[in-house]
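EI: anyone free to look at a 445-residue chain?
SC: sure, send it
EI:
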Amino acid sequence: MPQSYKNQRTNENDLDVRNIQSHSIYLNFKKTLQPLILDKSFAIGVSGGPDSLALAALAKQYSNEFNNPFIAIIIDHAIRKNSAKEAKITLQRLNEKNIDAVIVRYKGEKFSSNIQKHARDLRFELIQNYCKKNNIQHLILGHHRDDLLENFYIRLIRGSGLKGLSSFNTISHYSKKFLVLRPLLHYSKEDLTEITKKVFRNYIKDPSNDNDKFLRVRIRKLRQQFKNEGLSETRLMKTIENLSIANESLNFYLEKAEKKYLRYQDEGYVILSKNLFKNEAKEIIFQLISKSITFVSGNYYPPRSDSIKSAIEYLTLKKQNTITLGGCIVEHRGNVFYIAREDRNIPVLQLNKKDILKNWDKRFLVTNRSKTNIILKRLGENGINFLKSGKKNIPESSMPEKVKKTLPSFWSKKGELMFVPFINYKNSKYAIKSDTFSVCHIGLV
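SC: here you go
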């Protein structure tokens, strides 16, 4: 855990925060968190808007009461002109209330289309990476009732199934050691704005929230018309609640089928038993294919449902032995299907000396403990040919060739292959110890 937030402080600046300790929202917030977090550290995502600042106030009061250390993570996605300035203003507001916070900046390519979706995905990915790097296992987000309803309408328009329509849950397990909590789903943005005004007085106003070119904004404006036609939000929340209960039942059978038919490999591919298609219901097959693709590709969202259904049809009717789906290759071999990363659009990453847990290709967390900068990239055809040439003393492996090509591999600045994890190749020219480099798949952390 970073030293900066090991000890939270309390003084007169906390008075505004303590004023909400008897608020019904805080009491329910506390009731949700207590059995899950106990005395562990946690993180919150803060954008600077009224909902996330309300979350910060609630988290601070919880920390004061139970002595849980926490950190507020602010993402500067560099999409809007003033994003860096807004991040600094938000940091200052949090620090004034003795809330420790950090700004995580995005330094990649700018988005030209589907901006809001890219911004949301990017924000979550950067927050998740920060948490994993700092061994934080609990993340709290400020999604509220308005987000839940808007998300439901968007998924409905896009023809989502049960899982998509009930995708926002109070508790979500993203991996074995990473829990995402959304304890404010039963409260409106207006409710949370009230808390923010009491504690922080002001907040960042996102101009995109009034831009009609975004579907979410248009739906926001249509909601009043739906109310006028008798579709009350109370009834809609009840519908979503019923769908969530049905989804829990589906998840029970899904977990049983997952253990029976799927094998997740450390190298980042999946082995799927052909018997899945013979023995299970269509929805179970659909969900397991979807889950396999997100694991292998590293993408936050699975492919569109029509693409998955078409893939299932091709696989069950044996129209093709190999298909591509969502950045993955699905290949039929005997009684199983291999699902591997497609060998394209895989990034090249410079790893500086002492770089810890850097995200590569949205699939692997990698660490460079050596004393030099190196290049991390796919093994590729050239790497495989190099390993096959001469006597490299590499043990035999049943790993498919397609998987080997997309494995992470460490190269010197001079272009020499230094180390390949999972194949256990170490270039004797370099003094590579067992802990010089480390690699682990994000989905198995």
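EI: The domain at 3-235 is CATH 3.40.50.620 (Rossmann fold).
SC: 👍
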